[in-house]
Fold protein-tyrosine-phosphatase.
Amino acid sequence: MIDCHCHILPGIDDGPADMAQALALCAALVADGVTAAIATPHLHAGRWDNTPEVIARVCEQLRLQLEVNNIPLQIRAAAEVRISDELLNWVEHNAVPFLSAKLSAENPSRVMLLEFPHGQMIPGSINLVHWLVRQNICPVIAHPERNKQLQKELTLLTPFIDAGCLVQLTAASVIGEFGAAAHIAAGKILELGWPGIIASDAHNLTGRAPRMSAAKAYVAERWGEQTVSRWFSDWQNFWWHSGSC
């Protein structure tokens, strides 16, 4: 499997604090069936002010240590971008590492992992999404099933899907380890057939460990192999081979 949302880079967000923790988390991803991962550290104004240069440097340091320690995980870097007023400036100054240089063979839009606050959808967010789409950027909305407002009113996400967004569900939510509300919302999104991916959003080996294999087995049992392909491989395979930008 290819994991398109994980926090494996050491010392730059709320993921691993140091290289030893990062290597342990990467080994856990491999044990969970992940062969390649796009590292997505937080890009959050005023909290995690990461730059593409910092992210790329730390990613290369981790890549070298993976080789030294014989951990068979391919990695490259992107970011989980928190929606904010700063986002327009970041995009205009090429300060955002993208998940992929192209959405698909037919669509040349760049792919951005976009995070909303966990409590609610910010009023006017759809206007920013429309602006991103006009810049040939396809937002992938990170873990919407964990947003408290969307858990109560999932239809609030419909305009974003209509605008061309994809969604990213957390593997732990799919199997019920992020609580009942997130589990129910994830199931509804899968039932609706919206376009998207399932990723680990792994941060550590305790409360935020990789759960990709368990989620894949759950989806296969409940919805079948075609749904597994749509959520675990179709987009991921293309994005990985398209490269970052």
About this structure: The chain has a mean pLDDT of 96. The longest helix spans residues 225-242.
